[in-house]
Amino acid sequence: MPERIHRREFLKTAGPAALVGPELVRGAHSWTSTSTATSEPGTNANPRLLTGCCAYSYSKLLKAGKMTMEDVIRKAVELGVAAVDMTAYWFKSTEPAYLASLRHLAYKDGVCFSGAAIGTSTVQADAGKRAQVLEEIRKWIDVTEALGAPHLRVFAGKLPDGAMMQQGIQWTVDTLKVACEYSGKKGITLGVENHEGITQNAEVCLELVHRIESPYFGINLDITNFIATPQADVYAQIEATLPYATHAHIRDVFENGQAVDLDRVWPLFARTSYRGFMSAEYEGEEDPSTGVPKLVEKIKTLCRKYSSV
To answer: From CA 96, how far away is CA 89, in angstroms rounded?
Structure first.
């Protein structure tokens, strides 16, 4: 398979998100069987759905200085979760001594890091800015390695004024392909989140996986972030991208306030033989001290229901 394909050719293979939901899923499954990308589903494996928690769940308290990243690790013990996704926004520093202290605290408390997360955007029209973003991602790959974590969440972001979608995709491919060459040497996987901007539909997420074509690249799947349309509902888009999910962020409410049917989502993960963390990312109005445990308990219950762990 060539490294780069025209968008029209990709749509013939994967099926556009503008199609009816099941058509998108069938297109994605058809592509899975022919792609040489090595971010492949474990089709013959039992699902391993593990409960985790994103540090971002405590963003209100972290922003207010009422919690630290050390406190987030201790909260994981209270919550009884296996891992924390270490959102980078509230690190005191990236000095080796500080990172080592976080790693040691997690070890002493029996908590692992499912990954780290940064907010850099690869959709930059200026070549100099794209180079800066690449260096920032490399820096955080090194931080992720120092933490002993296997995964780094990255963003593509919003198109700048006047830019076309295909330009944003190309900038992202060019940046993350090089970043994956660097992360792969350290055994670290990059997961681009389906977040606000160019990656809010399954079509673009699948095209990025297809064109970057690295065993160290996939989709950091937030189940609430796809834009639902009458032609491609959010559940179909989750199913279409699940074979390439590197990590899952779980909320129980969509941006429009509608409840997520988690009992519809979990079987999709199970049927795909997903093996990884279902990390709570609480963003509700309730105080995180009480809101996060409620979401985590829902996740635990569903993981027990649909997985053997």
So the answer is: 17
Rounded Cα gap, residues 153 and 21, in angstroms: 26
Q: Is 168 exposed, middle or buried (0-12, 13-18, 19+ CB in 10 A)?
A: buried
Domains of the chain: 7-32+48-306 (3.20.20.150)
Q: What does DSSP assign to residue 186?
A: T
DSSP string, 146-159: HHT-SEEEEE--PP
Are 183 and 154 spatial neighbours (Cβ–Cβ below 8 Å)?
no
CA 186 to chain centre: 19
Q: How many CB atoms lie within 10 A of CB 244?
A: 25
Predicted TM-score (pTM) of the model is: 0.87
Q: Is residue 57 within 8 Å of 282, Cβ to Cβ?
A: yes
pLDDT in tens, 158-210: 999 999 999 999 999 999 999 999 999 999 999 999 999 999 999 999 999 99
Give the Cβ contact number of residue 69 at 10 Å.
21
For 76-100, write each residue's pLDDT tens digit. 999 999 999 999 999 999 999 999 9
- What tokens were used for 178? 């090089």
